[in-house]
Amino acid sequence: WGCAKCGKVFTGSYVEAMDKHYCVECFVCETCGTQLGTQFHCADGKIYCSTDYKARFAKKCAACSQPIVGPYLKALDECYHTDCFVCAACRNPFENNQFIPHEGRLLCPKDFYTLSGSICKGCNGIIDGEYLNVLNNKFHVACLVCYTCRSALPDLSFFEKEGMPQCETCHH
Asked: For the segment 145-165, what is each residue's pLDDT rounded down to a tens digit?
């Protein structure tokens, strides 16, 4: 038997990988030349150290660009480390894995609606139906109340104080 790399006949220890035999000193990473021990990977008929194998063949995380080894999540044809699958705005994990793609980023519904201007100024809840646009802010119909006393505004008549609606009683 001879080494698959240098051709020398073995006189001592040798390594077997991919149905070939190598001198211990010839058993090196194809990319960096580091001598390999028991930790190595085979791909495309070549042998690699863990670092170079990950760099060349492992999936890359869409959030951090690092190689993915182990469990991962896939969303919109992109792969993510489980710890990297978070809202791009608030960095919190997605509740029930619910997210909305927005301008190349994944956002939780709250941040998506905040960025798109669909949050009620009265309750900070998401507006997904009818709303009133008052003083350059959106309100659920039921949330348009006096900013001071929280009472209903009859006929939607109000005064403005610090950008918020105020009833006649509180205004005087």
From this structure: 999 999 999 888 999 988 889
